[in-house]
TrEMBL record:
<dbReference type="InterPro" id="IPR028082">
    <property type="entry name" value="Peripla_BP_I"/>
</dbReference>
<protein>
    <recommendedName>
        <fullName>Leucine-binding protein domain-containing protein</fullName>
    </recommendedName>
</protein>
């Protein structure tokens, strides 16, 4: 079993990012949610540091105020704890290594 951030990997900025990855490295992304998330996180931290500097407390406070930030995962919003607000996909790893989506959940 695995969990990934739920997002539409077939459309918009996520599809563009994943296609660019495949073109550049000559292979498909095995876990698109993880690599797309890492890619977006780097740019999110960059945006935060440009906004408030590299002080960890200021970055945490800035992150909890992010609403509708657009990047490869689509629009990202964070709650007062700095946690992403959104849905997560529960997936099962198949014998061939692929992932089969079992359900999508939205934490309360």
């Amino acid at each position: 079993m695995a969990t990934e951030l739920y997002f539409d990997e077939t459309a918009g900025p996520a599809a563009d990012f994943l296609a660019s990855y495949e073109t550049r490295y000559g292979e498909k992304v095995e876990f698109p949610g993880y690599i797309t998330s890492m890619y977006s996180q780097m740019y999110l931290i960059k945006a935060g540091m440009e906004a408030v500097g590299n002080d960890a407390t200021k970055l945490k406070d800035w992150l909890s105020g992010v609403k509708g930030w657009k990047h490869a995962l689509g629009e990202l919003t964070f709650d007062e704890n700095g946690d992403r607000v959104g849905e997560y996909a529960i997936k099962e790893v198949q014998a061939d290594g692929s992932l089969k989506e079992l359900s999508v959940v939205k934490p309360q």
